[in-house]
Amino acid sequence: MDDMDRRLLSALRDCGTDRRVAVAARALSWAGEHAALWLAVGLLGAAADRERRPAWLRGTALTAGAHLTSMGVKRVVRRPRPRVEVGIEPLVRTAGRHSFPSSHATSAAAAVVAYGALRPVGARLVPPLAAAVCVSRMVVGVHYPSDVVAGAALGALTARLGARWMVGGEAR
After folding, report:
1. Residue 43: count of CB within 10 angstroms of its CB
2. Do 148 and 134 contact (CB within 8 A), yes or no?
3. Predicted TM-score (pTM) of this structure
4. Count of beta carbons in the 10 Å neighbourhood of residue 22
5. In this structure, how many other beta carbons lie within 10 angstroms of the beta carbon of residue 157?
6. For residue 59, which of 138, 121, 150, 140 has the smallest C-alpha distance?
7. Strand partners for 98
């Protein structure tokens, strides 16, 4: 698994040698930092959709909660980020030293689940953007594919567990 992780990361990081790809990947990584993109989407949804404002705000809280959960898991697992000694030169600086799970992927997947429940806007716009943010973390060379997969699973699960509460019911 470790060898496959490194080979996939190397292949995706090589995509970042194209200047246009690198610029896009850096921008997506920056936008997803500390779940900022997804929190902004939730707050904009709440401002624009008065009828479902409480659900948008709860979805935003779920997304933030998933992000915080990921940060806690990182402190326990403490997997180091890919580094130059692995042959990966990162295209961006990171807020922390640990890579597992990807908090960008966690918040992106949580947003897909949470905002996707607020159809049609959330279900149509969020998934492709979330996928791009997830891939960007490997293109910029700061996460292994397994970090991203684990982060996405954690985010989706966290948001799914709170989905009933989000739409106005009680938490499961």
Report:
1. 13
2. yes
3. 0.88
4. 18
5. 16
6. 121
7. 80
